[in-house]
Amino acid sequence: MRFEELLKEVGAFSRFQGMVVLLLCIPRIILPLHFLLHNFISAVPPHHCADPPLENGSALAEATEAGILSHTIPRKPDGSPSSCSAFLYPVGNLSNSSSAVPCQHGWVYDHSQFHSTTATQVRQWDLVCDNKKLNQALATFFFVGVTLGAVIFGFLSDKFGRKPMLLVSFVASAVFGIISAFSVSYVMFAVTRTLCGISLTGMSIISIALSVEWTDVEHRTFTGTINGLSWTVGNMLLALLAYFIRDWRQLTLAATSPCLIAIVAWWWIPESARWLLANGKAEQAHKYLSQCAKMNGKEGSSSMMNTEALSKVTIAEDSNTTYSYLDLVKTPKMKRITLCCGLVWFGVAFTYYGISFKITGFGVNMYLTHFIYAAIEVPAKVGTYFVLDAIGRRNGQAWSLIITGILIGINTAIPTDHGLLRTIIAVLGKGFSEAAFTTAFLYTTELYPTVLRQCGLGYTSFMGRLGGSLAPMIMLLEDVWTFAPSLVFAGMAVFCGCIVFLLSETLGIRLPETVTDVEEGSEQQKSEYHSEMSIF
Ligand SMILES: O=C(O)CCCC(=O)O
Predict the structure, then answer these.
(1) CATH code for the domain defined by 1-31+131-320
(2) What GO molecular function terms would the record report (predicted)?
(3) Residue 432: partners with Cβ closer than 8 Å, 6 or more residues away
(4) Pocket perturbation via mutation, ligand 1, pick of 169, 203, 441, 466 by most ligand atoms within 8 A of CB
(5) In 3D, which of 436, 443, 462 has the Cα closest to residue 201?
(6) Which of 222, 256, 354, 365 is deepest in the core (most CB within 10 A)?
(7) Half-sphere exposure in the Cβ direction for 366 (13 Å, CA)
(8) ipTM above 0.90?
(9) Do domains 1-31+131-320 and 323-535 have the same CATH topology?
(10) What is the pLDDT of residue 100?
(11) From the CA of 199, how far away is ligand 1's center (Å)?
């Protein structure tokens, strides 16, 4: 007997699955609060060199009022004060920049928008000017942690189960998120943000797998879309939190607080019955399947539910078989899936974060830009829900990536003074990039077998994190050529979109449980699936 048949018996998608999907929305809401947090806690406000302290020790403000400051700060061509240099001594002729030197006595920051950020954190931080790259590196440290977490939690959740590792992720994210907010040095903040990144990835890959593994074929797209929309809720919530909380420490604490809610909700989140059966834990599977049957009003399904019958459910070739990342490339079709999905995830995250990290320069304040970028995800994801069941996952994944690349490329050809048109194209590009990300979660989950699903998601998430980590570095290329970053993002999106055509379609195909299922090919599974469904 296949697990799909068992799931039909206990209720394939009813109140129990509704509860599971809703509870797993909580971690999906938490993720963007941290993944995009650096847009705000590491923002660099306008700043310029502080004047030397006056002999009589009076405050710098007096120097500013007295107009002395304007005599020592060189002006940029647009008339604004230079950010990183000052004249050694007050001079009458402000255009004389020959004696300008790097700031000698710290900086004066414009606090009209931010009370404090990691860039302006005084006492050894001051991550501006020559130290600006250290400020940008904080986001990269976080995504390096996310990258490591993908490998760690991918393996641990396949070995020890989804539910226990989800609790580890919730608790560790709360602990390191809180500690990072109280960092007393740059190094302490960088380390705790990296550990927070590692912890958060656990809930990222487990929440997807756990919700899909409790869902039947017909409702997998719906489940994947709900998971994706909960990320969007968190993304929009971040814009609101950042608008009202302008201190980086308080904003970090606010972004971490939902982890405490997740820890309480964890109690009601069930373990994956698929995983339990795949690992020979029929008794525990029986407990959760009985809960599912009871909640779905299917108590009469006990005939298929005794432990002996459950132990015969075909999920793994041998429940004593242990799997590792190496199994992702041991057989021909698994190798193709792994190589192609790795490239696709790299391209998806590379373009998604390349677009998401640039929220300034569109003529509206950064909070509104971030909110619009998040809000466009709603039609993108709802549209994905309908499109994927119509054109299939492969076309949906390929064309969402290709169109993202085309739109990014088009924007490089539009003159910068066409602000509204550029904004519309950028928002559309974000929407298609979002559709590509939403599809990637669902498509990857369906391509990998149950026995290797978390390893597969861990590997592809790792590749995606590499792409997300690289995106900020690519944006530095604009110092070389303005259009360089956009053309790199566009080319990568189109290339990875074309790679998708090498993968098989999974629409209407039973979720593969074993490596054999994958190697037999989708036609075999499709015919088996339809013949199985025909008996219901
Ligand atoms: O996991 C990420 O880094 C982005 C997920 C985006 C989404 O779920 O829409």
Answers:
(1) 1.20.1250.20
(2) organic anion transmembrane transporter activity; prostaglandin transmembrane transporter activity
(3) 380, 400, 401, 403, 404, 407
(4) 441
(5) 462
(6) 354
(7) 23
(8) yes
(9) yes
(10) 73
(11) 16
What's the length of the chain? 536
CA–centroid distance, residue 441 to ligand 1 (Å): 8
Which atom of ligand 1 is nearest the CA belonging to 352?
4
- 3-state SS, 467-520, equals HHHHHHHHHHHHHCCCCHHHHHHHHHHHHHHHHHHHCCCCCCCCCCCCHHHHHH
pLDDT lower than 50: segments of the chain: 70, 91, 94, 96-97, 317, 529, 532-536
- Please indicate whether residue 231, judged by its CB atom, sits closer than 6 Å to ligand 1: yes
228 CB less than 6 Å from ligand 1?
yes
Cβ 466 under 6 angstroms from ligand 1:
no
Please give the torsion angle defined by the CA atoms of residues 216, 222, 223 and 225, in that order, rounded to the nearest 10 degrees.
150
305: its two tokens: 């539910």
- From 206, 231, 356, 373, give the residue whose CB has the most ligand 1 atoms within 8 Å, as the site to mutate: 231
For the stretch 91-132, pLDDT in tens is 455 454 456 777 777 777 777 777 888 878 755 676 777 777
Nearest alpha-carbon partner for 223 in 19, 526, 395? 19
pLDDT digits (tens, 9 = 90+) for 133-160: 777 788 889 999 998 998 898 889 989 9
437 lines ligand 1 (CB under 6 A): yes
pTM given for the model? 0.80
Burial of residue 326 (number of CB atoms within 10 Å: 0-12, 13-18, 19+): exposed
Any atom of ligand 1 within 6 Å of the Cβ of 436 = no
What DSSP character marks residue 59? -
Name the residue of 25, 237, 437 to mutate for ligand 1: max ligand atoms within 8 A of Cβ: 437
Of 262, 259, 261, 287, residue with least CA distance to 273: 287
Is the distance from the beta carbon of residue 469 to the nearest atom of ligand 1 less than 6 Å?
no
Element (H, E) at 259: helix 258-265
Which residue lies with its CA nearest to atom 5 of ligand 1? 437
Backbone torsions φ then ψ of 313, nearest 5 degrees? -65, 125
* Three-state secondary structure of 375-426: HCHHHHHHHHHHHHHHHCHHHHHHHHHHHHHHHHHHHHHCCCCCHHHHHHHH
Q: Which two tokens stand for residue 220?
A: 């997998």
CB 307 within 8 A of CB 286: yes
Query: Nearest C-alpha to atom 6 of ligand 1 is from which residue?
Result: 437
**Ligand 1 atom closest to Cα of 465?**
3
3-state helix, strand, coil in the chain (%, to 5): 70, 5, 25
The residues spanned by each domain of the chain are 1-31+131-320, 323-535
To the question of domain 323-535 being in CATH 3.40.640.10, the answer is: no
